[in-house]
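Q: Got one fold?
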Amino acid sequence: MPAARPHIEPRRVPTADSVVVKEIYLSLQGESSHAGLLCAFIRLTGCHLRCTYCDSEFAFHGGNRRKNADIVTEILALNTPAVEVTGGEPLLQPGVYPLMESLLDAGLKVLLETSGAIDVRLVPPAVHKIVDMKTPSSGECDRNDYRNLVSMNANDELKLVIGSREDYEWSRALITEHKLGSKPYSVLCSTIFDKLHPRELAEWIIEDRLPVRFQLQMHKYLWDPNARGV
């Protein structure tokens, strides 16, 4: 594995009452164990990674700063029991922690989509964290913060996005070395859309009896893979 670069430490500021939002929309959850369920999405602006397969580059810049209270009001008006906070990389914004707490206080099931590059230890335990540990073809594998492997709890899911046999073998080694099959959280494996046929990944998992959940990015099959707000 490449030597890790210095990590960005998570920063929670309880008084932070706003975040920069790129978009808010209602759709179906496209992946994770919550796939297929109605879900609101809050996409925050900004990311320090530049993954080769990124499908949300439009979220690197722009957006509007909004009060957390106003965001919660808008989400409740969408009349859905679940909301996902995503990006970009949402944990770059200190105000995201109070936002997630406010969403939980409002009675919502809260999901967080985050890279594996920032330790999730400060995220409220009730949040369902989906941690995208970067594989070699992302170009950002050396950004992974392996503290996440012990910071995650039974609510959470570790995601591995695989675009090649090298990515698969790296993922298999990670699962074996860290005994991820015995962790309280699930491990999800999916392919980079249009880079590796899902059947190939499925066959590798079956051959190795890998203790993971195979998944597809369902939203990319339902709608244009490059579409926004889905």
Summary: The chain has a mean pLDDT of 93. Residues 165-177 form the longest helix (13 residues).
